[in-house]
């Protein structure tokens, strides 16, 4: 399982092999239950028999304004980690090439931190 870290400058580090982490990085614990008004838990839809992984952040579309947005969405599956970066103004939706039937999707909100959902 990937572990994500962040430093005081806003830099991220993804650790997928359990190797030592540089000093100054703090582990992020993903949330899986959304208690905020905005929805943050990734919603995953496997399409074309799992060959396309469609991800929307939240059942209700997450805000994507400069002061509150999803910075990135990551797929972890089959020893693979793929990250898609988003910007304010974009729709909080992305697609990953699939071929797998299970994995974890992570989403990072600039205000509410790391969120995850297994599929």
Strand content: over 45%
Helix content: under 10%
Q: Reading side by side through the largest sheet, how are the strands ordered?
A: 7-6-9-10
How would you sum up the global shape? globular
How far apart are the termini?
A: 14 Å
Mean pLDDT: 91
Which sequence of SSEs, written as H and E, runs from N to C? EEEEEEEEEE
Which structural class do you get from the secondary structure elements? mainly beta
Low-confidence stretches: none
User: What is the gyration radius calculated from CA atoms?
Assistant: 14 Å
Largest sheet: 4 strands, antiparallel
GO molecular function: iron ion binding; oxidoreductase activity
Pfam families: Desulfoferrodox (PF01880)
Domain Desulfoferrodoxin ferrous iron-binding: 33-117
Keywords: Electron transport, Iron, Metal-binding, Transport
Verbal overview:
The chain is globular. The chain has strands spanning 3-6, 12-15, 26-28, 42-47, 52-57, 70-77, 80-85, 93-97, 104-109, 113-118. A hairpin with a 3-residue loop joins strand 9 (104-109) and strand 10. With 119 residues, it is mostly beta strands. The chain contains no helices and ten strands. 0% of the residues lie in helices and 45% in strands. Pfam families: Desulfoferrodox.
Question: Which keywords apply here?
Answer:
119 residues, mainly beta, four-stranded antiparallel beta sheet, three-stranded antiparallel beta sheet
Summarize the structure.
By secondary structure, this protein is mainly beta. The protein has strands spanning 3-6, 12-15, 26-28, 42-47, 52-57, 70-77, 80-85, 93-97, 104-109, 113-118. The protein has a 4-stranded antiparallel sheet with strand order 7-6-9-10, with no helix packed on it.
């Amino acid at each position: 399982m990937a572990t994500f870290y962040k430093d005081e400058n806003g830099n991220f580090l993804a650790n997928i092999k359990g190797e030592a982490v540089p000093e100054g990085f703090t582990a992020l614990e993903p949330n899986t239950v959304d208690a905020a008004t905005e929805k943050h838990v990734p919603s995953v839809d496997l399409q074309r028999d799992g060959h396309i992984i469609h991800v929307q952040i939240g059942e209700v579309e997450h805000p994507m304004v400069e002061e509150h947005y999803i910075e990135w969405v990551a797929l972890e599956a089959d020893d693979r980690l793929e990250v898609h970066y988003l910007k304010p103004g974009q729709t909080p939706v992305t697609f990953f090439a699939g071929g797998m039937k299970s994995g974890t999707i992570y989403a990072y909100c600039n205000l509410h931190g790391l969120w995850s959902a297994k599929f």
